[in-house]
Every structure is written in C-alpha cells, then in structure tokens.
Automatic annotation (TrEMBL):
Oligomer status and interactors: Homodimer.
Biological processes per GO annotation: amino sugar biosynthetic process; carbohydrate metabolic process; fructose 6-phosphate metabolic process; protein N-linked glycosylation; UDP-N-acetylglucosamine metabolic process
GO cellular component terms given for this protein: cytosol
GO MF annotations, alphabetized: carbohydrate derivative binding; glutamine-fructose-6-phosphate transaminase (isomerizing) activity
Segments forming domain SIS: 41-180, 213-355
Record keywords, A-Z: Aminotransferase, Cytoplasm, Glutamine amidotransferase, Repeat, Transferase
Name of the protein: Glutamine--fructose-6-phosphate aminotransferase [isomerizing]
EC number: 2.6.1.16
Principal location class: cytoplasm
Function according to Swiss-Prot or TrEMBL: Catalyzes the first step in hexosamine metabolism, converting fructose-6P into glucosamine-6P using glutamine as a nitrogen source.
Compartments it resides in: Cytoplasm
Annotated gene: glmS
Catalytic activity: D-fructose 6-phosphate + L-glutamine = D-glucosamine 6-phosphate + L-glutamate
Active-site residues annotated for this sequence: 360 (for fru-6p isomerization activity)
C-alpha cells in the first residue's frame, strides 16, 4: 500500500505520532479478554528452558529490553546477541531452546542467516516481524506480527515500540505459563497496557520542551546517554536514533559503567541524557548522575514527577513524563528518545527520513 506523510513534514514525525493508535490496535490483536492469545502454532513456555534472542539495530535493542522482561517476569534465562556476531560464533544451542528473531523488514541478511543457523538445533524458531510475507516470517515455525503498519523513515520508531509490545506480551505469557504471575496480576498489567496510548499521547505533549533541549544539543559534538535496568537498552536506542539522523556522536552506557571510562569525557560541553523513572533503581542512577553534575556535566533528566521532585534540582533540564508501572517504562521512554533525535536533526537541518549512508533494510552482509 502506498503511504503518504498525511500532513506531517516527515515520515518520521508521522510514525512517531502514530504510535498510540498502532499500539492500541496491535494490543487488541493479541488479547482475548484478559488472556494473551498468539496467532498460529501454540507456544508453551513451561517446556522452554532457554530463549535466544537475535536481531540487528533497533530490533536488537528491543531484544535487549525483552531480556530484562523474560528474566524478571518469567524467570527464563535469555541469551541476546546481534545477528552478525551470533551467526559466526557457532553458539551451542541447548535442548529446549526457543530461538527468537526480531526484524521490522524480515529481510535483514544477518538475522536471516542467524535464523538458518538455528533451524535444526532449536526446539522452535519464532520471529517477531512487521512484514508478514518476509523471508524471516516464512522460515519461522511461528511468526508474530507487530502490526506497526508500513514504516518509511529509515530510523525505526513505531516498529520499535510495536516490537516491544509483542515481546512484553510474550514475556507476560511466559510468566503466567511458568506460574510466576497470577491471572489477576496479568489482568492488572493488561489494564495498564490498554491505558498506555493515552499516556503516550501525554508524552507527545512534551515535544516543545524536548525541542528546546534539542536546539542546544544540536550544538554538541558528543552526547552521552545513561540508564539502568530497562532504561539501559532505551539509552542505547536513544543514542542510536540521535547518531543516525543528526550525525552527532552519541554513546550510551549502563549508568553503573560511567566510572569505568565515560566519566573521563564529562565536561560542560558534553550533554548527558539520563533516563530514569522513579523506580527501584532510581537512587542508583541518581548517584551516577551526581557524579556527572560534580564534573560540570550538563544533564538532561528524563523522568516522572516523583523523580523530578527528588533529583531535578541541579540538572540543566528535566523532561517530565507520566508515571507508569515500571515494566511498561520502555514503551513510554521511547517517545522522548525519538523526539529528541527528531528535533535535534531538524535543528541541524539534516535529512530526517533518508539519513546518509543508511538503508531501511540491509539485505547484504
Ligand atoms: C537497518 C535500519 C534500522 C533497523 C535495522 C534492522 O539498520 O536502518 O532501522 O533497526 O536495519 O532492520 P530489521 O528490518 O531487521 O528490523
């Protein structure tokens, strides 16, 4: 189907804005009342001992986020790797392993090769894809659509949150199957997920604040992103988005790694984006943030109202998002990460939808 910009200046802006709607639709496709129902072949997590998650680029960061979910919610050991490394590592695939591949296009050469490597080794090949007729979908035992609709912008936005959505539903199903979550607790989480589109719209309302920060970030040569736990993969995704479309050097670190290297880079010219909802790890992240502030670093803190009240005093700027249950925070914090990259690229005048040297789908090695 042909898609147009529907009045937006860029496909990326349209695709960012579409997220509340596409996520609501995608969620409906996976729920039968308060039960998670997967299309196609059944997937019984009681028989699975290990999950191997493989992808490239943004889809890899969705996998990294999912590792935290599967481990914490379902107690399921997870291995995660980028496809280009995985495929040549000769990784042993132990019995009762499900190999799961995440790909927007379903055509990424390295991811497809990694899938083929697992074919006669894993118990089951599952894929999470946007393009249902793709090679990766066809070669899987079970292909789970993310229902993001056509994504045109080279920098992935709505496909990322829709990948997160399906991966979270899988982790929740695994938690229930494995007796780690009661149906009541699941129903409660699903209610929060159903309410998420409204929350994402509230996050979109922070666009002007983010734009103001972006105008100054556009002047920077290097930007550092920090996060812990579920916010670590989000920090990586934020840095990836920024470098892809604004060409500013951006790096992400797990907050706890700050002292093992990146702290040497901190001075007043390096903006540091700290992603930290007021969750169980908040105090730890804030103490890392203090180390940045003590060295004159310019901190952009992305948090919620409780987090801002506790730690927003000495920072350069604070972006305040609604509060959500911690496990849903990746879906919410993706929005400011995307908007920050978008507005920074606009301020720099770069080609947002067609960044130099990058392709939407990489079908060569
Ligand atoms: C390219 C795109 C990225 C994407 C990655 C993986 O690098 O520019 O946006 O995340 O490929 O693509 P896939 O289609 O496998 O998700």
């Amino acid at each position: 189907a042909r898609v147009d910009k529907a009045g937006y200046k860029h496909f990326m802006a349209k695709e960012i804005a579409e997220q509340p709607t596409v996520l609501a639709d995608a969620l409906r496709g996976y729920l039968d009342g308060d039960t998670i129902s997967l299309p196609g072949e059944p997937l019984d997590f009681t028989k699975i001992e290990r999950l191997t998650l493989v992808a490239c680029g943004t889809a890899f960061y969705a996998c990294l986020t999912a590792k935290y979910w599967f481990e914490q919610l379902a107690g399921l050991p997870v291995e995660v790797d980028v496809a280009s490394e995985f495929r040549y590592r000769e990784p042993p695939i132990t019995a009762h392993t499900v190999a799961l591949f995440v790909s927007q296009s379903g055509e990424t050469a390295d991811t497809l090769a990694a899938l083929r490597y697992c074919k006669d080794k894993a118990d089951k090949i599952v894929s999470v894809v946007n393009v249902a007729e793709s090679s990766i979908a066809r070669e899987s035992d079970l292909a789970l659509p993310i229902h993001a609709g056509v994504e045109v912008g080279v920098a992935s936005t709505k496909a990322f949150t829709c990948q997160l959505n399906v991966l979270l539903l899988l982790a929740l199903k695994a938690a229930v199957d494995r007796g780690r979550m009661t149906p009541e607790a699941l129903a409660e989480t699903l209610a929060s997920l159903r309410a998420l589109p409204g929350v994402l719209n509230a996050a979109m309302d922070r666009s002007d604040d983010i734009n103001q920060a972006a105008r100054q970030i556009a002047e920077a040569r290097d930007v550092l992103f920090l996060g812990r736990g579920l916010m670590y993969p989000l920090a990586l995704e934020g840095a990836l988005k920024l470098k892809e479309i604004s060409y500013i050097h951006a790096e992400a670190y797990a907050s706890g790694e700050l002292k093992h290297g990146p702290i040497a880079l901190i001075d007043k010219s390096v903006p540091v984006v700290v992603m930290a909802p007021r969750d169980a790890l908040f105090d730890k992240t804030v103490s890392n943030m203090q180390e940045v502030l003590a060295r004159g670093g310019k901190v952009l803190l992305i948090t919620d109202a409780a987090g801002a009240a506790e730690a927003g005093q000495d920072v350069w700027k604070t972006i305040i998002l609604p509060e959500v249950p911690s496990i849903l925070s990746p879906l919410l914090y993706a929005i400011p990460a995307q908007l920050l990259a978008y507005h920074t690229a606009i301020a720099k005048g770069t080609d947002v939808d067609q960044p130099r040297n990058l392709a939407k789908s990489v079908t060569v090695e």
